[in-house]
């Protein structure tokens, strides 16, 4: 059996962990909202039509922040048509996803749902078709106490107290040619607009923070120069730079899928460097933080590629997107929701690897919104259950607090060949990728620490020596493992093959914790003072 070693020291501090790092993302696509969290005719619907069983399990999970509404949808959304009596709301075409947006779930309902599940909403303002005036009215309606047209209209609509949204995203993926009213060809124009919008938000409510949309993928031809030009116009008025990325690996290539963290690592490091260049340019004392508010992992078959046009082809030319654009507009009927795809263990493990990467950048990455964060709760018409990803997401929410620690990892390595799946999903080769990946947190006030580790090997078990001898007065208080026989297993209400279990064959020797890490396994080790 091959061996690995991880050294964790309480002085190897990266930075404070912001609770919003363990957030999720929600957009009205298909049945994500209509027929999922909201179904007024469901037997378990509450007074506003929200499914109580999904609501309660979301609240139990304790997601600290949710970006809602967000996504491509927001670049054409008329928020003013989503407030007031539902019979008076206007239906619009949602060009992003070829849907009829009825606005039955609107501005106030999103924020009320967030209140009921006890999460902080991260609200996205329309910087596509929307104007500065629209942003001004939205923030005034949402956060001002009263005495103005828009704040009094909120009170008339049944919300006497302000919603008090703290964090505002100023647009979504504005560098993308697929975006409604894209700013791909005018980054400076977008930066100027964001600068003015950020001023408006903070003049209405000085406690607010703002997020500017940066590159939505490192595969865009404009990356990273687009970010530099945008920040050149708004660096001093915004608080975070937003990043998005969906790692795509070839079907059947587990090593490439589990190497997601390497790609995210490079992306984050490049964007931090861009932020620091602008800090030096402005001779500013402010250090820009990162909001990674959309991320995911998936696999794809090989598609046709265009030689020499890396990142330069509009997504609408892809076969799957051409089909999307040519299909008729649809209504999302909550009584006939689309069947949700089951979240398999392997894909959730790759997402966990990404979350660990964000943890290792906790000094600069303060917000993280997993696109599949809410889908860790499975449901059908009658039941809810915990998907495989629930058992990986929950430990971070429960145990990762205080400061992030930098682990020193010595482990066997593997290589990943570069691949070119299509003109928007291309990844270079990576060598010396360690099979063992780790991150850790240390909370002195609570007298606790947590170590998270993954064995990325799809072929063999590894023995891991965890050196925690520097944690004087601390000892292991729990070690849970996820390691299903089938990496593609997924949970249903009737059968749940992916469940955590307590490790039984660990050894504790002179400050060193020896454990067995089965192939493709996820581990959470807790230390208590």
From TrEMBL:
Coiled coil region boundaries: none
Keywords, ordered alphabetically: Carbohydrate metabolism, Glycosidase, Hydrolase
Classification via Pfam families: Alpha-L-AF_C (PF06964), ASD1_dom (PF22848)
GO MF term list: alpha-L-arabinofuranosidase activity
Main EC class the enzyme belongs to: hydrolase
Family: Belongs to the glycosyl hydrolase 51 family.
PANTHER family with a match to the protein in the record: ALPHA-L-ARABINOFURANOSIDASE C, ALPHA-L-ARABINOFURANOSIDASE C-RELATED
Name of the featured protein: non-reducing end alpha-L-arabinofuranosidase
Protein's organism: Eisenbergiella massiliensis
């Amino acid at each position: 059996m091959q061996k690995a070693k991880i050294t964790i020291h309480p002085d190897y501090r990266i930075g404070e962990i912001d609770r919003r790092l363990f957030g999720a993302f929600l957009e009205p696509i298909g049945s994500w909202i209509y027929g999922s969290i909201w179904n007024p005719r469901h037997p378990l619907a509450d007074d506003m039509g929200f499914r109580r069983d999904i609501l309660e399990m979301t609240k139990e999970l304790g997601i600290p922040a949710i970006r809602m509404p967000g996504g491509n949808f927001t670049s054409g959304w008329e928020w003013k048509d989503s407030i007031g009596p539902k019979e008076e709301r206007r239906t619009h075409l949602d060009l992003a996803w070829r849907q009829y947006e009825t606005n039955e779930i609107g501005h106030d309902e999103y924020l009320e749902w967030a209140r009921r599940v006890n999460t902080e909403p991260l609200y996205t303002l329309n910087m596509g078709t929307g104007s500065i005036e629209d942003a001004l009215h939205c923030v005034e309606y949402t956060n001002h106490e009263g005495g103005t047209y828009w704040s009094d209209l909120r009170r008339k609509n049944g919300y006497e107290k302000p919603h008090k949204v703290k964090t505002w995203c100023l647009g979504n993926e504005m560098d993308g040619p697929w975006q409604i009213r894209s700013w791909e060809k005018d980054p400076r124009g977008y930066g100027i607009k964001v600068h003015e919008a950020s001023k408006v938000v903070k003049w209405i409510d000085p406690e607010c923070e703002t997020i500017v949309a940066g590159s939505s993928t490192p595969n865009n031809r404009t990356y990273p120069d687009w970010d530099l030009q945008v920040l050149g116009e708004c660096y001093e008025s915004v608080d975070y730079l937003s990043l998005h990325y969906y790692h795509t690996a070839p079907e059947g290539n587990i090593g490439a899928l589990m190497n997601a963290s390497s790609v995210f690592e490079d992306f984050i490091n490049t964007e931090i460097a861009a932020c620091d260049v602008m800090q030096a340019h402005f001779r500013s004392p402010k250090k820009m933080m990162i909001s990674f508010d959309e991320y995911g992992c998936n696999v794809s078959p090989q598609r046709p590629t265009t030689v020499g046009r890396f990142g330069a082809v509009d997504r609408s030319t892809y076969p799957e997107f051409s089909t999307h654009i040519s299909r008729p507009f649809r209504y999302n009927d909550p009584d006939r929701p689309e069947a949700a795809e089951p979240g398999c263990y392997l894909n959730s493990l790759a997402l966990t690897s990404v979350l660990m990467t964000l943890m290792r950048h906790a000094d600069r990455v303060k917000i993280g919104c997993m696109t599949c964060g809410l889908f860790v709760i499975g449901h059908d018409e009658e039941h809810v259950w915990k998907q495989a990803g629930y058992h990986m997401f929950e430990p971070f929410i429960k145990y990762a607090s205080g400061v992030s620690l930098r682990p020193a990892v010595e482990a066997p390595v593997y290589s990943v060949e570069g691949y070119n799946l299509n003109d928007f999903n291309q990844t270079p080769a990576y060598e010396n990728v360690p099979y063992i990946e780790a991150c850790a947190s240390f909370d002195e006030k609570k007298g606790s620490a947590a170590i998270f580790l993954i064995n990325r090997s799809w072929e063999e078990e590894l023995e891991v020596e965890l050196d925690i001898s520097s944690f004087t007065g601390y000892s292991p208080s729990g070690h849970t493992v996820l390691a299903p026989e089938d990496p593609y297993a997924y949970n249903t209400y009737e059968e749940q093959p992916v469940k955590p279990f307590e490790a039984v064959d660990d050894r504790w020797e002179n400050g060193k914790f020896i454990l067995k890490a089965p192939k493709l396994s996820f581990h959470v080790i807790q230390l208590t003072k």
